[in-house]
Amino acid sequence: MANGALEIVGMCVSLIGLVGVAASTGMPMWRVTAFIGENIIVMETRYEGLWMNCFRQASIRMQCKVYDSLLALSPDLQAARGLMCCSVALTGLGLLIAIAGMKCTACIQGNDRAKRMVLIISGCMILAGCFCCLIPVSWTGHAIIQDFYNPLLIDAQRRELGEALYIGWVSSAFLFAGGCIFTCCSGSLDKGPDPRYKYTRNAPYVAYQPQPVAYHPHPHSVYSHPSGPPSFIEQSYQPSRQPSFIQPSRQQSFVQPSRYPSARSAVAYL
């Protein structure tokens, strides 16, 4: 139950991070005009974002203009566009995958190992989205600070950190926490054997009681001895002999002639 509650917390934290990343991507407040030195006119404020430039005056609503050319943008701005879009895509896809791996959902029932692997994959995707958001935000912030202290630039060219950068840093922290929760809470499951190979310790055990075997001797194997009790004689195995029917051969009887003529005549007389 603790893991289920932790998964819900990770889902909420990651969802907050996703909303923050999406807001930071669309907001034009990445670079804000710095009011220092000679540039002390507070009636007009200029914002520079990933997709547009905006001007705001005291008595006029904010007016924005989309960038005309993609190639005219600075390298950090072009990289920030791609990385922020990747962060939104990875985080959103990771949350959808995490829904299938949570215990409170009916997806992948009866297979805790598959659910654990799904949560680990979703946590890794959310962490990847966190770094994709943290890199452009930190890169842009570093460039702004470096240009602010550049002595070759005039005061009108200097910029300050906008609200979108702070939202991006906070969103990265939420995404990092959510990714770690999904990755760590999935590893705290019971690391037992595969449910397909369960061993039941309290299985019923039936002892086998051997029964006495009664010996019935063959009547032909017992004989009485005049001086002692009857004894048993082990008879060797002899193959059964099938009765053979032998028909007597019919021999032809014939009289062979004698070599003596007197005997021949006597036989003829008989």
Automatic annotation (TrEMBL):
Pfam families given in the database record: PMP22_Claudin (PF00822)
Subcellular location: Cell junction, Tight junction; Cell membrane
Main location group: other
GO molecular function: structural molecule activity
Record key words, sorted: Cell junction, Cell membrane, Membrane, Tight junction, Transmembrane, Transmembrane helix
Keyword presence, Cell membrane: yes
Membrane protein topology class: Multi-pass membrane protein
GO CC terms of this entry: bicellular tight junction; plasma membrane
Regions crossing the membrane: 5-23, 79-99, 119-145, 165-189
UniProt feature, compositional bias: Polar residues: 233-256
Span list, region Disordered: 222-270
PANTHER family, per the entry: CLAUDIN (PTHR12002)
Family in the record: Belongs to the claudin family.
Name used for this protein in its record: Claudin 8
Annotated source species: Cyprinus carpio
